[in-house]
Amino acid sequence: MYIKSILHFKIIHAKSRIHGKGSFAKENIPARKRIGILGGQIISKFKARKMAVTKSIAVVELWNGWAIDASDEKGLRYVNHSCDPNTFMRNINYLVEFYALKDIAPGEELTCDYGTTHHDGKLACTCGAVNCKGSL
Ligand SMILES: [Zn+2]
Q1: Residues with C-beta atoms within 5 A of ion ligand 1
Q2: How far apart are CA 120 and CA 117, in angstroms?
Q3: How many domains does the chain have?
Q4: Where residue 15 sits, what CATH number does that domain have?
Q5: Alpha carbon 35 to chain centroid distance?
Q6: How far, in Å, from the CA of 96 to the mean position of ligand 1?
Q7: Residue 129 within a domain
C-alpha cells in the first residue's frame, strides 16, 4: 500500500545545520495548522528495522504495527529531530501528519521531537537546542 504525500504549505529541501538535508518552510506556517501528511510505502516493522537507516526519518514506525518508508517522499521526509521542535507528528492508522507547534517563518527549518522511537537512545543528538537531551 502506498500513502500519497500531502503538503498544505510550500516546503523546500536544503542543507541543515542539524543533520544532512532538512525541510524548510518557504512561506509562513501558522501555529496549530496541519503542514501535511508523510507519503510512502507501507512496510513491515521487521523490514523497517532491517533497513536501520540514518537519523533522517526515511522510515517511521506506526502505532498500528506497520511502518512507512518515506524514501521517495518529496515534502516532509527531511524533517530533522530537535529537542525544541516547531512541529509535532501525529499518527493515526497509516497516516503520519505534521502540525505546526508555533508560527513558522519562511526559511525556518522544520523540526520534530521524535523521542527515542527508532534509535533507543543510542544516537547522539546534534539539534543544538538549549534543552537538548543529548541523545535520541
Ligand atoms: Zn537535541
Answers
A1: 83, 125, 127, 132
A2: 6
A3: 1
A4: 2.170.270.10
A5: 11
A6: 22
A7: no
